[in-house]
Design brief:
242 residues; alpha/beta; 7 strands; globular; Rossmann fold
């Protein structure tokens, strides 16, 4: 990367929660940021926040389960910024019905499609550009992707656990190209994602959880690490994590 070339970061699930916090933190560190997700209005709100602070950002709406849209989005990001140096995968899905005796298989497929298949799709679309820049991938997984959590759900636990293998294979196969990836496993984070739980945590429970900004600082640590440093897996949890 030349001195005049901007570092470009693409974030899926960038319109809210952890993705939004990552976008704002990265822009503050000088990254040009592209945020993707299904809701154009929230993506444009994030872009407005970043540009108001003097940062550089664009919105690239898409459904991460749409392979064609993901491939087109990768090209849009590269065309807008001249390259791609980082990919943060923050899109996620779960459902209140999480047990074998009450889950819905269509929901199961949607959860796996969002949490696992879409991660592979985005990495595949970004990989040629990340090879060129010796870039970094951060897959925001879950505490349930690191340690089995009975309440996380059949589909969610299976998909997040599989992200670990995806990241390991990426590191093993792409190290020669300078690409590095991190399987980031947050514990409880106080975001709107909690609304998908069977019993939604109250304000007191959320007060002792991690904040999206805690995760953004962690992602920044990974992204800003020297090129010879690879952080294969990172678990961050609140002191209150059960």
């Amino acid at each position: 990367m030349t001195d005049t070339e901007k570092r470009a970061l693409w974030i899926t699930g960038g319109g809210s929660g952890m993705g939004r916090a990552v976008a704002r933190a990265a822009a503050g560190n000088g990254w040009s940021v592209a945020v993707s997700g299904r809701r154009r209005d929230v993506l444009e709100a994030v872009v407005a926040e970043i540009t108001a602070d003097g940062g550089d950002a664009i919105a690239v709406p898409l459904d991460v389960r749409d392979r064609s849209a993901v491939n087109q989005a990768a090209q849009k990001v590269v065309e807008a910024f001249g390259g791609l140096h980082g990919l943060v995968l923050a899109a996620g899905q779960n459902a209140p019905r999480r047990r074998w005796d009450d889950q819905d298989i269509e929901e199961f497929e949607a959860i796996v499609g969002t949490n696992l298949t879409a991660v592979a799709t985005a990495v595949d679309a970004a990989l040629p550009h990340l090879r060129a820049s010796q870039g970094t991938v951060v897959a925001i997984s879950s505490y349930a992707g690191w340690s089995f959590q009975p309440g996380a759900g059949v589909a969610y636990s299976a998909s997040k656990t599989a992200v670990s293998s995806l990241v390991r294979s990426l590191n093993q196969q792409e190290a020669a190209h300078g690409v590095r990836a991190c399987h980031l496993c947050p514990g409880d984070v106080a975001t709107d994602f909690l609304e998908q739980r069977p019993q939604v945590p109250d304000a007191a429970a959320r007060a002792v959880m991690l904040s999206p900004e805690d995760i953004a600082r962690t992602v920044s640590f990974v992204l800003e690490s020297p090129a010879h440093v690879r952080i294969d897996e990172l678990v961050v949890s609140p002191v209150s994590q059960a």
